[in-house]
Amino acid sequence: MSAIFDGRRDGLAEALHAAALSDDALLERVQAVGPRGVYLARSFLTGRIPTELQVADDHAQLLDDPERWWQATVHAGRRLSRARGALPVRAASGLVVDVTDTASSPYTTGIQRVARELVRAWSEVEPLELVVWRRLTGELLRADEGEAERAGGSSAGGPRVQLVPVGARLILPEIAVDRDRAQRLASIARFGADASLAVGFDCIPITTAETTGPGMPGAFARYLSGLARFDVVAAISRAAATEFAGWARMLPSAGLRAPRVIDVELPITPLQSLPETEGAVRAALGIGERPVVLVVGSHEPRKNHLTVLAAFENAWRSGHDFAAVLVGGNSWKAEEFTAFATRLREAGRPLVLASNVPDERVAALYRLARASVFCSLNEGFGLPVAESLAVGTPVVTADFGSQRDIGEGRGAVLVDPRSMSAIEDAVVALLTDDAFHARLVAETRGLEPGSWERYASAIRSGLGA
C-alpha cells in the first residue's frame, strides 16, 4: 500500500497505513471504531473520500457481512490504485484549507479575494495543507505549486498526493455548490475533522433567488446541506450572520445539530495602487479631465447596474459633465445592460466599460474618483463600498443590510437602490456640492482601519485554533 501517515497519531489510520497488521486485525479495528472506521478504511484503501451516504451504506454492509465488505473494499482499492497510477495516499492532520475554485482561476471575485488573503495570512504563521478536489472522483488532492500560488499560498504547494483528513482542522474559505464536493466535505467535517469552519458570505440564492443565475438556488441549497455538518460558520458581516443564523435555526427541526454562527466582519482596507499618476490613468481610459464616478462590480442583475446607468443618463441629460467608469465583467443575464451601455456610448456619453482590470489599477481609480456608486439589491458585505471609503472617496450605496452597516456615518450617501431618481440626486449632489462632498470625505476618516492579518487570526480563533 502506497501511503504515509503524517501528523497527529491515530491508531486506526496508522494501522491502515502500516500494513503490518493482518486483514483480520484491521477489520476488527474498523468494526470497533464504527462509521468513522468505515470512513478511514474506504478513504485510505481506495483514495476516495466517501460521502456520508456511502459511509452509512458501507457500515450497514459491514454489520451484515464483515468479511464480504472488507474484501470488496480492498478489491476496489486495488482497482482504483491501478487506475490512478499508484498516487500516494497521505493523512492530513493539520490545518486543511479547501481552495478548489480559487486555485483554478487567475481572476479575482470578492470571494476569491477573501480566500487568497486568508491563505496568504495563514501561511505566514503556520504550515497549511491546501487542497483541491478532482471533480466527480472523490479524490482530495494536495494543491500543486501553481494552484497554491493562485490561491495565495505560494509556499504551501507540493507534490501531488491524495489526502485523507484525520483529526484535521478544516476550513472552507469559498462556497462549494458542486453536489459531489459539498457531500464529501460534509463527510470530512463529520468523520475526519476535529474542528471545521466555513466562511459564510451570504444566503442570497435563498433570500433573493430571483437575482441569481439559473440553477443557483438549488446548487446553493446543496452547499448549505454540506455546511450543516460544520462546527462554525464565520459570517463576513452582521447582515450575513443574520441570514445564516436564520438558516441554522431551522436545522434542529430536521434532527441536525446547527453550526455555531459567528460574525467576523471583513476588514476595511484600501487596495494597493500602482505607482502611476492620475494623468496616466485618465489617459489610459480616455476620460480627459472630467470628474469620475466609479462603479465596481460584475454586471449581473443583482448589482443593479441598469438602474445606475439610467441615473447617469438622466444626470447627463440635465447637463452634468462627468465620466462614468464601470469596472467589472459581464455575468449571466447581462444582455440588457450591455445593449443599454452600447446605446449610451454610441450617443457620445463619456461611459467607460473595463474588465479584467488589475487590483492596482482599480485602487488608482478609487483614489481619483470624485465618488463611487454601489447600489446592489443584496450583498453579503459589499467590498467596493469598503474599498472606496478606505481611500476617502464617498460612495452612494443602498440604505439597508451590509451596505448600510459599512457606509452609514462613514462617508456614504444611503439611498433606495430601486429608485433611479434617488441615485441620480445623490450623484449630482456629490458632483456639484463641494461642502457636502467635503463633509463626507471627512466622515471617511472615522473608519477604523482593518487588516487581513487580524481578520485571518479571528477566523482561526473561531475554529478554536
From TrEMBL:
Keyword check for Transcription: no
Ranges that cross the membrane: none
Family annotation (Pfam families): Glycos_transf_1 (PF00534)
Keywords associated with the record: Transferase
Glycosyl transferase family domain location: 283-444
Name of the protein in question: Glycosyltransferase family 4 protein
Transferase keyword on record: yes
Superkingdom classification of source: Bacteria
Coiled-coil intervals, chain numbering: none
Record-linked InterPro entries: Glyco_trans_1
GO biological process: lipopolysaccharide biosynthetic process
GO MF term list: glycosyltransferase activity
